[in-house]
Design a protein that fits this description.
The chain is built from 10 helices and 11 strands. The protein is of the alpha/beta class. The chain has one domain: NADP-dependent oxidoreductase domain (TIM Barrel), CATH 3.20.20.100.
């Protein structure tokens, strides 16, 4: 498979379709507790695979434990070629608060939790999420945590290592310790602080996976975006996803939803191509312009 294929890219050594699925919204409100309808949540996962998704993003601290167990119940034994990516570096307290869990012991325990709840002997990709600042990347050393993950990789518990909520300096620091398969940061039409990072990673053949690619809990709203969507007879969120896919070949999308209908709408974004005029109009959205 070529890294230049429009619809696929290598995640580590795993070829995945560039339009994947993020499981976070399958947990209860605030990503805490179970969903109201377990069967509906499992139906979304099965439909995602039926639609060709072979890259699912999850974490054992979603719920906690909820999304991983749902994935196992819905999809295990897993179809050949399915790549499951998880995140570690945080935990939840009894009220659902997000707390750092970054010691070597914390990270090893998190890997074993993911293995057990997903029903796997090896995790395809584990992203270490920096908790130096929960609101966005912040400079600071991550070598201790990356070294701990590298040891778990040497033991065969983890196949590939990624980073989340990090700066380019931190990526380069980690690369001196172990190969980095992907970076997962916040990025979308409006939040474009990682433009230079995306291009740098693309030159190295490393995947960039934006979280909140469609705005997350506050979906993107823009007059320019709505205008382009209307002209293309698509939804604004489909256009926003299509823009990301055309932004750089190393971008992998993981839009999440708890609705089969919404999942199908998201997946149709993969067939949408934006012409030069549309791309020019959408450039005006960067920095909050509408």
């Amino acid at each position: 498979m070529s890294q230049q294929d429009h619809d696929t890219y290598l995640l580590g050594d795993r070829p995945v379709r560039r339009l994947g699925y993020g499981a976070m919204q399958l947990a209860g409100p605030g990503v805490f507790g179970p969903p109201k309808d377990l069967d509906a949540a499992k139906a979304v996962l099965r439909e995602a695979v039926a639609l060709g998704v072979n890259h699912i993003d999850t974490s054992d601290y979603y719920g906690p434990h909820v999304t991983n167990r749902l994935i196992r119940e819905a999809l295990h034994p897993y179809p050949e070629g399915l790549t499951i990516v998880t995140k570690i570096g945080a935990r939840r307290d009894g009220k659902g608060e997000w707390l750092p869990a970054i010691s070597a012991q914390d990270l090893e325990a998190a890997v074993h939790d993911n293995l057990r709840n997903l029903g796997l002997e090896q995790l395809d990709v584990v992203n270490f999420r920096s908790m130096l600042d929960v609101h966005g990347p912040a400079e600071g050393p991550l070598a201790e945590q990356v070294e701990a993950l590298a040891r778990l990789r040497e033991r065969g518990l983890v196949r590939h290592i990624g980073l989340s909520n990090v700066t380019m300096k931190q990526v380069e620091e980690a690369q001196r310790i172990v190969p980095i398969a992907c970076v997962q940061n916040m990025y979308n039409l409006v939040h474009r602080q990682d433009d230079a990072m995306i291009d740098a990673l693309a030159r190295q053949g490393i995947a960039y996976v934006p979280f909140f690619p469609l705005g997350g809990f506050t979906p993107l709203q823009s007059g320019a975006l709505s205008k382009v969507a209307q002209r293309l007879e698509a939804s604004p969120l489909q256009v926003a996803a299509a823009w990301l896919l055309q932004r750089s070949p190393n971008i992998l999308l993981i839009p999440g939803t708890s609705s089969v209908a919404h999942l199908r709408e998201n997946m149709r974004a993969g067939a949408l191509r934006l012409d030069a005029a549309a791309l020019a109009e959408l450039e005006d959205i960067a920095g909050g312009a509408a």
